[in-house]
Every structure is written in structure tokens, then in C-alpha cells.
């Protein structure tokens, strides 16, 4: 499970609690990428199925300017970049 | 090389600057509410969520800070990916800055889209490359505020926008 903390929750915390929450957040960045990669690949597959289009096709269409770059597509493209970073990280570990 | 102002910074310093900038926009009355959250991923920290602004404007935020030097509580981090998107609720997007992909002819992935919020048609010159001098989130919010004040007279009733964040 990915560790998350809401900004509003942080703002409501005492300084000591906030420091502890941020330290836990930082600690969670040391996790191995495999679980996150699996979840990310599932999310990308879901988007591809929902839109009836491969990620490679989306990227090619957006780069060529033949498909309107919606906010949803933009975030999809960010997931592809994340996948690349995590795959590189997994390869190094 | 990254531009110096987008260079690595200690996470807690980054967070402190972020808090101060957002507080200033809340104090000025332009920001009304937010749903931002921080997430930890292997080797990176993501900031994501929405900012509700005057006029029914909603800014979507996704920003990824990569850990470039580990530390027990305060690692050195650097932004590797970002997307800020402003739209007028009930209408369309009008401004986005991101680096999520390349555009032909652009020297970097950093670019800025500007649209007519009523039609979402690209404005002349959009998208344009912002190069290494891409905006901080605070600068993007300031641009959105400038846009708001130059369009305030023509914007529709924003009451429904508040419900978008599901808080009221």
C-alpha cells in the first residue's frame, strides 16, 4: 500500500507529528519498485482497455499533434514516464 | 543541466517553501480550498490533487520529486516531472504547463498550453516550449490569478465549482 498523507492533515498536526509523518513518507521512498510496478502496469492496462488504444499509440498521436491532449491523456503519459523510471530503478536494484 | 532554480533541494526546505507559497495565495483570497496529498513511491515523492480558486477555477496538480540523495529524514530531491492544469469548472481547460511528453520542434519537454476556455481551441502559438525556465507551481498559480482578473467580468457563476472538491 502506497504511503500517502494529505496536505490538510499535515497542516492540522503539531510540529512533532508533522515531522514524524514526513519522516515516514521519506522512509517509504526506500521501498522496492516491484509492487508499485505491478500496480502501475495494471493501471496502464486498464486505461488502454478503457480507451481502446495502446499507450504507444497515445504517445505517438500526442507527439504528432493528431490527438487533442486532454488532462486525462496528460496524466496517462505521466504514468508511462513513471513506469520507465521504476523499470530503470528495478533494473538497478 | 537543469536550471539552477529547479536544481536539487532538501525535501523539508522544498516543503517549507511550498507551504509558504500556498499560504500566501490562501491569505490573498485567491485560493479557496485544496485536496493536495503527498505520496511516497520507490525513489520519489509525488504531490497531487486540486486547488480551488476564485471564479470556479480548478488547478490540477501532479508533481514528482525524485530522491537524488538519500537521507534518513531529509533527502535531496529534484522535480523530474510535473503537470499543472487550470480549467474553469463547467467549461474547459485554459492553461497547462507540463513536461510529460515531447512536442516536435521543441528543444525540451517543458511546454505551455493555452486554450480558449469556452471552446478549448488552442490559442495562437500554443503549445510553446518553456525551455529550462519552466514555472514553479507558485508561478503557475500567479499566472492563473492574472488570467482570472483579466476574465473576471465574463466568467459565469462559480458556485458549482465548490462542489467539485466535494468539501461543501
Task: Explain this structure.
The complex is a heterodimer of chains A (93) and B (168). In chain A, 75% of the residues lie in helices and 3% in strands. Chain A is mainly α and 93 residues long. The model of chain A has no long low-confidence stretch (mean pLDDT 94). Chain B is of the alpha+beta class and 168 residues long. Chain B has helices at residues 11-28, 137-151, 159-164, and strands spanning 9-10, 31-34, 37-41, 44-53, 57-69, 76-88, 93-98, 111-114, 128-129. In chain B, strands 1, 2, 3, 4, 5, 6, 7, 8 and 9 form a 9-stranded antiparallel beta sheet that branches. In chain B, β4 and β5 (57-69) form a beta hairpin.
Layout of helices and strands:
The complex is a heterodimer of chains A (93) and B (168).
Chain A: E1 4-6, H1 7-12, H2 15-28, H3 34-51, H4 55-64, H5 71-92
Helix pairs in contact in A: 3-5
Chain B: E1 9-10, H1 11-28, E2 31-34, E3 37-41, E4 44-53, E5 57-69, E6 76-88, E7 93-98, E8 111-114, E9 128-129, H2 137-151, H3 159-164
Antiparallel strand pairs in B: 1-6, 2-4, 3-4, 4-5, 5-6, 6-7, 7-8, 8-9
Amino acid at each position: 500500500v502506497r504511503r500517502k498523507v494529505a496536505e490538510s492533515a499535515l497542516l492540522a498536526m503539531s510540529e512533532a507529528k508533522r515531522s514524524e509523518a514526513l519522516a515516514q513518507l521519506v522512509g517509504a521512498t526506500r521501498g522496492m519498485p516491484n509492487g508499485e510496478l505491478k500496480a502501475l502496469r495494471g493501471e496502464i492496462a486498464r486505461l488502454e482497455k478503457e480507451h481502446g488504444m495502446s499507450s504507444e499509440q497515445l504517445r505517438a498521436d500526442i507527439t504528432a499533434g493528431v490527438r487533442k491532449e486532454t488532462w486525462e491523456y496528460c496524466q496517462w503519459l505521466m504514468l508511462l514516464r513513471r513506469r520507465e523510471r521504476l523499470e530503470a530503478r528495478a533494473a538497478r536494484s | 543541466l537543469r536550471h539552477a532554480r529547479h536544481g536539487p533541494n532538501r525535501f523539508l526546505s522544498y516543503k517549507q517553501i511550498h507551504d509558504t507559497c500556498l499560504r500566501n495565495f490562501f491569505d490573498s483570497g485567491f485560493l479557496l480550498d485544496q485536496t493536495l496529498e503527498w505520496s511516497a513511491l520507490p525513489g520519489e515523492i509525488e504531490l497531487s490533487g486540486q486547488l480551488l480558486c476564485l471564479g470556479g477555477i480548478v488547478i490540477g496538480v501532479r508533481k514528482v520529486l525524485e530522491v537524488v540523495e538519500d537521507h534518513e529524514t531529509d533527502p535531496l530531491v529534484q522535480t523530474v516531472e510535473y503537470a499543472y492544469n487550470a480549467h474553469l469548472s463547467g467549461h474547459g481547460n485554459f492553461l497547462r504547463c507540463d513536461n510529460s511528453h515531447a512536442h516536435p520542434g521543441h528543444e525540451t519537454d517543458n511546454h505551455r498550453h493555452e486554450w480558449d476556455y469556452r471552446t478549448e481551441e488552442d490559442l495562437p502559438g500554443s503549445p510553446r516550449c518553456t525551455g529550462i525556465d519552466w514555472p514553479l507551481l507558485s508561478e503557475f498559480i500567479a499566472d492563473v490569478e492574472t488570467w482570472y482578473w483579466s476574465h473576471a467580468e465574463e466568467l459565469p457563476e462559480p458556485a458549482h465549482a465548490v462542489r467539485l472538491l466535494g468539501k461543501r
